[in-house]
Write a structure and sequence with these properties.
mainly alpha, extended, 113 residues
Length: 113
């Protein structure tokens, strides 16, 4: 009987994470390059399904590029608050008619919430 909640009999081989970081918290494009290399080398873990042109959502997590987003926001005609006071997201919405309008409203409501 295994002590606690851990039971080694449930262990099995699985790979799927790689981490690259600057231990001093300095942003650097080299970290992104290395992260992409890690992701490429994890292809053996089954990161592509039956359709090899799409993946399982594997990707890299990076800091919010505040300076870049400030410039993009200004170019779009609005301003952003200070770093760390807003969120960034990506939503894939329908592209046609009423479905697109409904989906946009749902995303907007969630963002406000």
């Amino acid at each position: 009987m295994a002590p606690g909640l851990y039971d080694a009999s449930y262990e099995h081989d699985a790979c799927g994470v790689g981490m690259v970081a600057d231990l001093h918290g300095r942003p650097d494009h080299d970290i992104v390059d290395k992260g992409l290399t890690v992701l490429e080398r994890l292809a053996h873990r089954g990161a592509s399904g039956a359709e090899v042109s799409t993946g399982d959502g594997a990707g890299i997590l990076v800091q919010v590029p505040h300076r870049f987003l400030v410039g993009a926001a200004e170019a779009a005609g609005f301003s952003l608050p200070g770093p760390g006071t807003y969120a960034v997201g990506l939503a894939f919405l329908p592209s046609e008619g009423d479905d697109a309008a409904k989906a946009k409203k749902v995303v907007e409501a969630m963002a406000v919430e």
